[in-house]
Design a protein that fits this description.
378 residues, globular, three-stranded antiparallel sheet
Amino acid sequence: MTDASVAGALSLYKDAFTEAFRPPWQVARVLGRIVACRSGALGTHVCECPECGTRHEEPNSCRDRHCPRCQKANRAEWLEDRRRELLGATYYHVVFTLPDCLNRLALSRMREVYKALFHAAWGTIDAFGRGAGMRLGATCVLHTWGAAMSLHPHLHCIVPGGGMDLETGRWKQLPVRVRENGGQPFLFPVAAMSSKFRGLYVATLRKLGVEPPKDVADACFARDWVVYCKSPSCGPEATLEYLSRYVYRVAITDSRVLSVSDGGVEFAYKDRRDNRSKTMTLDGVEFVRRFSMHILPSGFFKVRHYGILSPACRKILKEMQLQSGSDVVYNGGRRKEGKRPPRTRVCMVCGCMVHMSIRWRPPYGARAPDFPPPATAP
């Protein structure tokens, strides 16, 4: 029985997967990083408590964006940055989903397919916003998986219900639209957005040099594409908190892996068809294959900001915050000094919350430090 974690499953079946499928170098590199994360293969760092002088050694993490053990600090920083960009408006949650007829194309031309998804989604939002006489903004987060790690590319977008008036340059609020029979408020009619999104996506894909096969193109235009849109009732800050859980999430976390053995990998998932929690057992190589489908190309940004929320419009954003009556006002870059704040740790002996001094040690067979025995707790 191997460690019941994603890294444990990858370490057991990674070589068999590599031999069977010959993955690209970037996929193999990510799998190797996850296996080596916090194992000591990437080196260690020494923490020393300034209060009691206790020292201990900890293994380094890989900090890869696909690793389920990393990115928690990045998630907190991302959420804090988005809170400083809040506008005094109702926020809408819009989801653009690619049909499954494009799954095979997504695996072979991943960069172009996902880039077109971003461009078509924002082009749809921007076109409807300009039709209402304003320039909107959006924060978009890419997800590529379903509950059982199947390929399910879709884009989560948070869109403020207002923007800059194209004529006056001042803040303009969108009228609140409510579905009949007391339904949820929505941004724009989803049927019209779906048709616009479908046409923009295929056109953008062709501009990027990807011509879908005729049967794939016919299947795309033979169905309605799914666009989901509603206004969360929990408020903008809670909406950002919800979205932040998606920003640095990976296809599967360690908490969902139940067992790893020679017989396969058992994990828990939630079946959206009946909204019930279930378990699934996959062959180890198939588990690694499904996980590797969601490793993004090197340098590809899975979070993008558009319109008045883009980095190029910070001055406009500040004016819109003042005019919309927002509780916060954007005041410049995140950290002007360009450094992370000191890490806060809990001392294992005295239990105090201190900023631990850290000394890095090299990886791969470096000599272990000669520590004095730790003091015993009183």
